[in-house]
Amino acid sequence: MGTLAADFGGLTAQLFELVQLRATGTLFVVSADNHAAQVVLSKGQLLGVAYNGLHNENAVAQLASLAPLRFSFTPELIYPLLETLLPDQAEQLLERLGYRDTPAVAHPLVEEDEPTDSVAAPDGSRTPLMVYRGRVIQG
Questions:
Q1: Around 54, how many Cα atoms within 13 Å sit in the side-chain half-sphere?
Q2: Which of 39, 123, 134, 139 could form a disulfide with 27 if both were Cys (CB 3.0 to 4.6 A apart)?
Q3: What strand order describes the sheet that includes 45-51?
Q4: Sign of torsion, CA 15 21 27 30?
């Protein structure tokens, strides 16, 4: 996914699509005044939201008041968060944003049984995915 620009509704639509696809990674968001936000997902589960020193509900409320927003999704990158959501809290936050849980859509590029915490090496073996300061590093 390239960088997209939209209002908060466009951001939530992208988030809902990623949840439906059971995606793992970080949706990086940048406001018009160049402040960064991160929306982190693991297997379609919302782990948390961070924006300008705010977390989760407060971060979402602040993002909702901003436009335009630029955002892009980086798969397999779990951005470190200071505060994470419990599964019930994540579900409630998504519902307040307008998300309605429907059966997951099969994605042709994602296999359900494939582990998401490792990457394939050229020889086909799996190695742990390591992240340092928001960048994937090779171990």
A1: 14
A2: 39
A3: 4-6, 69-75, 25-31, 36-42, 45-51, 54-55
A4: negative
**Cα separation, 100 vs 11, whole angstroms:** 16
- DSSP letter string over the chain? ---EEE-HHHHHHHHHHHHHTT--EEEEEEETT--EEEEEEETTEEEEEEETTEEHHHHHHHHHT--SEEEEEEET-----SS---HHHHHHHHHHTT----PPPP-TT--TTS-SSEEE-TTS-EEE-EEETTEEE--
Query: For residues 86 and 56, is the Cβ–Cβ distance under 8 A?
Result: no
Q: Which amino acid, 121? A: A
At 119 the pLDDT is 53
Assign 120 a pLDDT band (cuts: 50, 70, 90): low
Tell me the pLDDT band of 6, cut-offs 50, 70 and 90.
Answer: confident
Query: And the tokens for 125?
Result: 């073996």
CA–CA–CA angle 75, 39, 1 (5° rounding): 40
- Which pLDDT value is given to residue 111? 47
